[in-house]
Amino acid sequence: MASSSEGSGDALLPDFPRGPLQAYRARASFSWKELALFLEGEDMLRLKKTIFSALEDDPLFARPGGGDLPMEKYRELNFLRCRRVFEHDLLRVEDMLQSPLKVWALVNCLGMYDWSLAAKFFLNVLVFGSAIYNSGSERHFKYIPKIFSMEIFGCFALTELSHGTNTKAIRTTAHYDPTTEEFIIHSPDFEAAKFWVGNMGKTATHAVVFAQLHTPGGGCHGLHAFVVQIRDPKTLLPMPGVMVGDIGKKLGQNGLDNGFAMFHQVRIPRQDLLNRAGDVTPEGTYVTPFKDDRQRFRMSLASLSSSRVSIVGMSVVNLKLAVSIAIRFSATRRQFGPTDKEEIPVLEYQMQQWRLLPYLAAAYALDHFSKSLFLDMVELQQGRLGKDASAGQAELGREIHALASASKPLASWTAQRGIQECREACGGHGYLAMNRLGHLRDDNDPNCTYEGDNNVLLQQTSNYLLSLLARRAQGGAHCKSRLKTVDFLEAYPDILGQRFEVPSLEDCLDSSVPLAAYEWLVCYLLRESDQKLNQEKRSGSNDFEARNNCQVYYCRSLALAFLELTVVRRFHEHTHQPSVPPPLRAVLRRLSALYGLWSLSQHTALLYRGGYFSGEQAGKMIETAILDLCSQLKDDAVALVDVIAPPDFVLDSPIGRADGEETLDIAAAF
Fold this sequence. Notes:
Elements: H1 6-12, H2 22-27, H3 32-40, H4 42-57, H5 71-88, H6 93-98, H7 100-113, H8 115-135, H9 143-148, E1 154-157, E2 173-177, E3 182-186, E4 194-198, E5 206-215, E6 219-229, E7 242-246, E8 258-263, E9 266-269, E10 279-280, E11 286-287, H10 293-300, H11 302-332, E12 334-339, E13 342-345, H12 350-385, H13 391-425, H14 427-431, H15 437-444, H16 454-475, H17 492-496, H18 505-508, H19 512-538, H20 543-548, H21 551-575, H22 582-601, H23 604-609, H24 616-634, H25 637-644, H26 648-651, H27 662-668
Parallel strand pairs: 1-5, 2-5
Antiparallel strand pairs: 2-3, 3-9, 4-8, 5-6, 7-8, 10-11, 12-13
Helix pairs in contact: 3-25, 4-7, 5-8, 7-8, 7-11, 11-12, 11-13, 11-15, 11-25, 12-13, 12-21, 12-22, 12-24, 13-15, 13-16, 13-21, 16-21, 19-21, 19-22, 21-22, 22-24
């Protein structure tokens, strides 16, 4: 548990300036500094303060006045800022390896300032760099120091113009020529052009390029990754045979240069094949440590799961920023009141609480989940680097793949809906560009589609769950996993027989209630999805058609409910652990209960249809509990925002200022 000493808190977390928000801060039931120290720890808070201070004190990061910059100017400035982040040396390579959560914190702090900057840094260091480190071998490690010295600048080139989510259909080829010991990278036509690749538009000098590997007489060995130089690092001119350019303006993140590339018979050394999943001898023989092609394919694309986990964190950051702005505004904006002469803050209205406070609870729950999943991913990658080929390691990979595939949809959609709700809850001021909610909405939007379309990704999770049920039915295999996310399925038949039995409203105000309901809901949807799939097959559909016809109302709902259950369970366990300081227990448990009940309430129809709920009292009790928890958390809302909001310079929203003086700040802008 993190230290909660007053001295440490005051040094790292100075008091906020007095202003209109002081009244709510005075009514809080807990110390926001103690909660920040418990959740983050002194080391992490110190790192965040260092990052934020470096940005605020450096003139290069000064916020431009007078509206948006022209796109070309914005991209040039973003590249200079990215280079300055390296110069500030905010996190050394050793720190990244020893404390992976600090890497997570650095990217998210940069994202709080500007996602174009965070994405540029992230794609170069953590996507391009990690792909080399995790998918390559010692012969490729020469590239790593060049990334940090900015001798080279990288990108990750998987998606093509005609294929994104369907990675197996990627059409770029890599034919091996044993006479020169080279691979020939080639784009057969424009539809095979690499597309949407971040950093490729203007600045990337090297790319991890995914292509179908061919050897003489050996046919095609499937998708593999290659390091390909696409520009001269000194001139940024394209290399021979490479056509590369920018795809143009997007809905958001326009400081990031997304680009395209086509390759015409581009030759690269044999050694630039990233060879952890498979290699080619100088003579042209393909070798791989994997006997199962599916396992080798999963290894080739392992970096996608880590990227999806990172997108979960990005989405949570966007939600944090939006609720910080909206709740601070709601605590100072006064409208109407019990008399004509007395107006009250809009946060006092039940409607405003119901609109915003569940998203505040979601920000806390998803933040904890995203960090825990990130650490799970680190454990998996360490096992792969240690060449752990055990069955347990393979099962861990499948479990994390299922979690990552559903967590990106849940987090990005929750942030999408939450940002829009925050925008509307701030009225006309929320529509002002200067208050940033519109930018947050646009910057979050691609989280729903890149690294896999959300609806398609959910099929990976439902397939995983259905396979567990099939194994259980065929051989009585136990439903147990390394991360214990599916262990409850051991009691699958018994859980299906359970019903909602909560005697009083007070008993309903704990996250154990939605936790039990979610276990039943997942078991019910698993049974329904399995029955629907078998029914489709019996009616003559092949496996492809049957699965396609089971997504809407069945498998999609199953995958989302399973992930919501996992988030609720992890946050419940976190908030109910004995190490939580006594002064923080009540507020954290209210957040946990509110998130669980609010999420569960979106499945009310299913709970009634399946028989878990019966009679009107069950549904009414859930609704009453949600409103009761919102009322209990109302006076703590500003302090809870103080824990997660960055400094004013980074938040960059007049209506979200820490002192609550938004009227003065808006007036000063005109």
